[in-house]
């Protein structure tokens, strides 16, 4: 009887990586593929319906936002809750209106401000398709109480696979830079088994960081305990949907200020050019007007400074600068754009698309590596397959 190789830590990591990968392969393939498709959702919708998401010309230099809001309310028969204006004059103005039925979600209307024409709503030809993609990504088209934890645990496994993959990527014996060299490149002139191995090993290494970002952020939607724990760690609530406790001073007989006046007040404080400006109207008589602005010069396209205004007097009640938030508050506010890849606009979307494609391929290349090892015959009876 020959000498048996000891069961090393690396062998344990290899086995854990292999069997966890096989167990989660199908779910991870579906989740990563749907994530890849969803990355450019808005661009695909714009391509399918260009007349709804872009204007052919700006007929006049300026338009009356108050009159436009009144027009949308009258035409839709619904209460306008929010107005979003972009810096591009050929972008339609977006109006968020309340739902027709209580308890239902409202919708977004896209409006040509120059022609005073409602171009369409957020629902379009691609809506049903992307809703299916969304449901596949979040809960595999199953009941959410079943599918959500399955996706969540598969995501946790993906984190383990990513970390164990990094350990396996490291050379067994480190003898300077040359030991790492092969892990950074794909040997395309080799046989397909080697190419497949490199595609799994090397591309997995390059995509590791963003895969972990997407995984850790995605878990916020899968498990309440994870989201609660992360909130404790960050020192602030993740997905905080609580209403602002700020109030306007209601004076009997006094009318509310108009949108133009609210914007003038906000622009005195936030005097920079904005990528987008959103005005949220108060839901009740003591509510406040909120103006959110995203600075055009910021690389991050998803952070906003906020001004809260008394709806009667026009006085500034509070100003929130994103830069003044704690690190935990900044991370909590950016969970969704960090997961979707919208945080840095087109730049981050392209990166996320590539990484999602790689992540989609990893279960496939991993299965092929396993099959190739299964086919490999041991040279003698004492051979142990790594």
From TrEMBL:
Keyword entries, A-Z: Membrane, Transmembrane, Transmembrane helix
Highest taxon of the lineage: Bacteria
One Pfam assignment: PepSY_TM
Organism from which the protein derives: Myroides guanonis
Residues spanning the membrane: 20-40, 150-170, 203-226, 350-371
Keyword Membrane attributed: yes
Protein name: Uncharacterized iron-regulated membrane protein
InterPro entries according to UniProt: PepSY-ass_TM
